[in-house]
Amino acid sequence: MAIRLYDYFRSSAAYRVRIALNLKGLDYERVPIDLREGTQRGEDYRARNPQGLVPMLEIDGATLTQSLAIIEYLDARFPDPALLPQDDAERARVRAMALLVACDIHPLNNLRVLQYLKQELGHEQDVIDAWIRHWIGEGFAALETIARHRATPFLSGDRPGLADICLIPQMYNARRFDTPLGAFPTLVAADAAATRLDAFAAAQPEQAA
After folding, report:
1. How far apart are CA 56 and CA 44, in angstroms?
2. pLDDT per residue over 9-22, tens digit each?
3. Confidence category of residue 39, pLDDT binned at 50, 70, 90
4. How many domains, in total, are found in the chain?
């Protein structure tokens, strides 16, 4: 079974899929798509992925897009280890934490949004950096409140799951843009627990560059 991941090393969404593939113990081929050079806008790539985004996964004859859709496919196709709890309410809580990152924080800090702020709207880089820190801080404040009552090492429970897969790339971005993290001890602890694991460490942008 051949698995091919179309990937950009610093894309949070692609980083999530690398983590999920590693947690599932799956071998895959990386196909770099350089967002800085506009490779994602090429005719061949857009023919297979009309949004022109990463990641894109080819597996079992299927072409899949959108990181959370890809991860939930992998979880259904390769159920061990599970990335979502079995309990209905707990599964909904873990999915909500994942979506808070993937839908409420990440899109506001996406490369194409930042490029629009700079190139089309003419904002200076220090203003854009402040924008990034503001929206990460807003989202992390809510996520910290949701997660701080949990007596488990990971947001998803006793082992890492979907919420952690979404958190760790966003923590990487937070540090990259010097976002203060002192108010988020639960998130910092979950990040530390996850990044000690090989599946997370091997997926880091520095390993994928």
Report:
1. 13
2. 999 999 999 999 99
3. confident
4. 2
